[in-house]
Amino acid sequence: MLGPVILAASRSDKMRRFISAAPGTKQVVDRFIAGETVDQVVPIIEDAAGKGLEVTLDVVGEDITTPEQAAAARDAYLELIGRLKDLGLGTKAEMSVKLSMFGQSLDGGHELALANVRPVVEAAAEIGTTVTLDAEDHTTLDSMFAIHEELRKDHPQTGCVIQAYLFRTEEDARRLADAGSRVRIVKGAYKEPASVAYQDKAEIDKAYVRILRILMEGEGYPMIGSHDPRLIAIAQELGRKAGRKLDEYEFQMLYGIRSDEHLRLAAEGHRMRVYTAYGTDWYGYFMRRLAEKPANLLFFGRSILTKG
């Protein structure tokens, strides 16, 4: 299995340097990363809105080692929100944030991350949009869920992400599927041990369906993060069985992957949101995209050979 190897490489400075220097890297990175600056990503938001799509924006970067870097990450999101406000795009774009960017792993990281993410959530609410807290590795989740609960006291529309491959997630889904909640379900893209997570793809898919049923039958707003045609069809069927209208849940897919499917679902009347990452610190995000799907790795390999 190449996935775990690639995920391990995502933590390696030596591999970071090698991948960054590879001749074909930029071509592949450009497929998954919308740009490096706010100015570069704004036309993509506008184009998506013109096609009936919505976006969630992720300023990439996870290797935060100082409180000053965490504050800079906060300020990058505040800059983004300011631009969305100026352009009148607030209702077409939400934000996705990783609390590791806001200092979660530093000393006093829980309080620091909460202090840094709160003004982002408040600014998003002021322009008519919201923030979703991305899930990271299992050791961070208790802190993430506690911060999510705290933020929802004043901003109940704040969303969070759950990962189907973790054993704990069915219980988390039952707790989160309450009125007003916004929950994105994904398969999971971090290397997790067998003591906490399913390792077999078929078992992960089964867990995904069980959890999705909990969310669809609950009172919250499910966000289906998947490119898998079978899981998309199952989600549509579960939505029908639960009596949900098409605007009572949404699909989310990554920028640069299955773009035709984005348009197809939107044309059918579904809410379709494109997870759009941008920024200069792209390495960790990029490596997880390679790990998720063998075709992505093959595309990268061909690019290196072609450009070498």
TrEMBL record:
Pathway: Amino-acid degradation; L-proline degradation into L-glutamate; L-glutamate from L-proline: step 1/2. Its cofactor is FAD. Residues 45-298 form the Proline dehydrogenase domain. It holds the Pfam family Pro_dh. It catalyses: L-proline + a quinone = (S)-1-pyrroline-5-carboxylate + a quinol + H(+). Keywords: FAD, Flavoprotein, Nucleotide-binding, Oxidoreductase, Proline metabolism. Its EC number is 1.5.5.2. Gene3D superfamilies: 3.20.20.220. SUPFAM superfamilies: FAD-linked oxidoreductase. InterPro entries: FAD-linked_oxidoreductase-like, PRODH_bac_arc, Proline_DH_dom, Proline_oxidase. This is proline dehydrogenase. It comes from Streptomyces pulveraceus.
